[in-house]
Amino acid sequence: MTSSTTADRTDRRLILELIRSPAATIVALAERAGLARNTVRARLARYEDGALRSFQRRVDPAFLGYPLSAYVLTKVTQRRLDDVGVALRNIPEVVEVLGLSGITDLMIHVVAHDADDLYRIAGRILDIDGVKRTTTGLVMREMVPYRVEQLL
Predict the structure, then answer these.
(1) Which pLDDT score, from 0 to 100, does residue 2 have?
(2) What local confidence, expressed as pLDDT, does residue 54 receive?
(3) Helix axes 37-47, 9-20, angle to 10 degrees
(4) What distance in Å separates the CA atoms of residue 92 and residue 20, rounded to the nearest whole number?
(5) How much is the pLDDT for 3?
(6) Is the pTM of this model over 0.85?
(7) Residues 6 or more apart whose Cβ sits within 8 Å of residue 89
(8) Which of 10, 49, 70, 107 is 20 to 30 A from 34 (CA-CA)?
(9) pLDDT by position in tens, the chain (length 152)
(10) What is the DSSP letter of 54?
(11) 140 and 73 in contact (C-beta within 8 Å)?
């Protein structure tokens, strides 16, 4: 799906059923959404082009041994932004990087085994050529989990 494509009523029904039962078969989704199996199959294939995010998003890093989560707000030399992005991909504990406008340039979501590990990861980020300054905020608890069901 291209970014200009938006969900129609059928997409919304199907996505709602996917949210409620992510492991459901095509037949089960078709029954629950009141759609033909071929319609469900075609829509799911279309979603693979960008509407559905990676399965990785559903895996809790704490289950993998990374119970600490933090956001590292980062100021970057603008002409080095792409290079910094490449370097961040080489740090396994970096799980997401968002480019921002305004008060900071990047918001880097990292996970760590413990406080010492977080200190090491923050140091690796600071060592990247082009990173000017960082501020780290430890996630204390999740107040509102990632969600889209309310948009349907």
Answers:
(1) 44
(2) 79
(3) 90
(4) 31
(5) 47
(6) no
(7) none
(8) 49
(9) 444 578 999 999 999 999 999 899 999 999 999 999 999 999 999 998 888 887 777 889 999 999 999 999 999 999 999 999 999 999 999 999 999 999 999 999 999 999 999 999 999 999 999 999 999 999 999 999 888 899 99
(10) P
(11) no
Retrieve residue 94's tokens. 């970096």
- Measured between alpha carbons, how far is 101 from 15 in angstroms, rounded to an integer? 31
131-138 sheet: strands from edge to edge: 94-99, 106-112, 68-76, 131-138
Do residues 73 and 138 touch, judged by C-beta distance below 8 A? no
| Distance (Å) of CA 73 to CA 81, 105, 108, 113, 126 | 14, 7, 6, 20, 11
List the structure tokens of 54.
Answer: 């990676």
In the chain, DSSP assigns E strands to: 68-76, 94-99, 106-112, 131-138
Coil, helix or strand at residue 35: coil
Radius of gyration of the chain (CA): 19
